[in-house]
Amino acid sequence: MAHGVEAIFGNPGTTENPLLDSLADYPGIRYYTALHEGVAVGAAKGYAQASGKAAVVNLHVAPGLGNGIGMIYGALKGCAPMIVTAGQQDTRLRLREPLLSHDLVAMAAPVTKWSAEPRSADEVAATLRRAFRIAVEAPAGPVFIALPVDVMEQDTELGAEAPDGLHAHPQAKDSGVAAAVAALLGSSSPAIIAGDDVATAGAHGELAALAERLGAPVWHEPLRSHAAFPSRHPNNQGRIPFEAANIRKTLASHDLLLLVGANLIEELWFDPGPLLPEAATVVHLCESPSRLAFNHRADIGLVGDLRDAMQRITARCGELAGEAARTLAQARNEALISAQQARQEAAAQAMSKIWDVRPMTPRRALHEISNILPREAVVVDESITGSLEVATLFDFRGPGDYFSGRGGGIGQGIAAALGVQVAQRDRPVVALSGDGSAMYSVQALWTAAHCRLPVIFVILSNREYRVLKLNLEAYRHRFNAESNRPYPHMDLANPTLGFVDMARGMGMEGEQVSEPEALTAALRRALAAGKPYLIDVIVSGTQ
């Protein structure tokens, strides 16, 4: 309670009994029960992303921690602040290697920012204080605490410590701001790559103002957790590629790159050569000294509060820009508007070509969904091969409208939607998931029903691991392994997955649809229901 915790996500076990038993004394903290540790961690990650607070998740001892590690990795890559706890066996049994025992601190260390185990009750309060500080310190992420059952039963006179009143983001130095402004004003074609940090810092408005001032296109990360820039803004160019050669090709026409945030570029395939165009000046702004110019070069690097730094850069650019610079920026903005209109016309033509395809394509399904959802809806996206369509069809105006997973592990979406709904109780939450991804954490449906979380789960069922088929084609091409052979073990059929039956078996209404009109009607029913609801949408294997 001292740290403002209102929710704990967990899967209970024997060594967690001291914590669970004590919750009766704290009615202000609600425990959200999951049927698998991965679901608990995924829900906690969603809560951390949507609330901006450090989430708390309670796991069972060694096997439970092992079950949750994949999702903890996703939280680490997604910079989600999280306190992960797991019960530990009685320390007096340590040398006898009791049932369920293992070195939990060592297990968690590779996927957390800090991993610790208090050895006495006197250490618990200080350990928690440090854990909360480390979790929220840039770059934010999960920490782990093992809680031995005997330590939890010990008496101590040291009560919970209040959180530190830290103001941890310094201002970027004036000299760095001046150097960045001079480089930007001297550029004939600037471009911006913006990351999740813009959203978590609440700096999306400042980013938009800076992009408009410069007339600069804005790209986002290949995988992102947040909407850091309005999806329908004419300067929005979507995501940068996953490969160095394609990144260089995409950015080749720009003589300056402004990178805002940390961990901006994650490669999937190896390409020789540098990550960024060698001829471009690189300006990097982030809030973490340890991540500044870490995976790429920077000609000018600034560490500081993102909102403050972009406000200052935008203001100085406005003060110092001459008439010629302002005219060029205006011309670049007008060109971006024209390019957006051309993209919209091309997209409309492409949509008309697949309008009557049956089963409907994922793009047609997502078009119907985007048209029916109310403005206040929150989308938690794990459509994977449909993510490009989600980014262009939906109107995400800023942080809080969109959440997704980082790290590449699947199954994060429908679990995270639980935590997002807990954090955003006044907004409808819609989880978009592929059928393969949903099966990794399908137990999340039970938690939604059990805890009365009115999430709408939309499963796009193409009955295959489509992303793996696309990646297999890329592998065959890259490694000269061209083949007409089929896709091995990548189809989800024989038997067909019955998501409606699964939902009903876990206490939730559901229906299957295969026609666009039926999808629209099903969404209306789900929105009106005010309770968890599943829609299984049959789609084709092409976009």
Helical content stands at: 40-55%
Distance between the termini: 48 Å
Nearest-angstrom radius of gyration? Answer: 24 Å
Query: How many strands appear in the DSSP assignment?
Result: 18
Report the oligomer. Answer: single chain
Which strand order do you get reading across the main beta sheet? Answer: 2-1-3-4-6-5
Total helices: the number is 20
Major beta sheet, specifics?
Answer: 6 strands, parallel
Q: Low-confidence parts, pLDDT < 50 over ≥5 residues?
A: none
Mean pLDDT: 93
Shape: globular
Structural class, judged by helices and strands? Answer: alpha/beta
Q: Give the DSSP E fraction (strand runs of 2 or more residues).
A: 15-25%
Q: Brief description of this entry?
A:
The chain has 543 residues and is of the alpha/beta class. Helices cover 40% and strands 16% of the residues.
Topology:
Layout: E1 7-10, H1 17-22, E2 30-33, H2 37-51, E3 55-59, H3 62-77, E4 82-88, H4 104-108, E5 115-116, H5 124-136, E6 142-148, H6 149-153, H7 174-185, E7 190-194, H8 196-200, H9 204-214, E8 218-220, E9 236-239, H10 244-251, E10 256-260, E11 281-286, E12 300-303, H11 306-320, H12 323-354, H13 362-372, E13 378-382, H14 387-393, E14 402-404, H15 412-423, E15 429-434, H16 435-438, H17 444-450, E16 456-461, H18 466-478, H19 499-505, E17 509-513, H20 516-529, E18 533-538
Parallel strand pairs: 1-2, 1-3, 3-4, 4-6, 5-6, 7-8, 7-10, 8-9, 10-11, 11-12, 13-14, 13-15, 15-16, 16-18, 17-18
Helix pairs in contact: 2-3, 2-15, 7-11, 9-11, 13-20
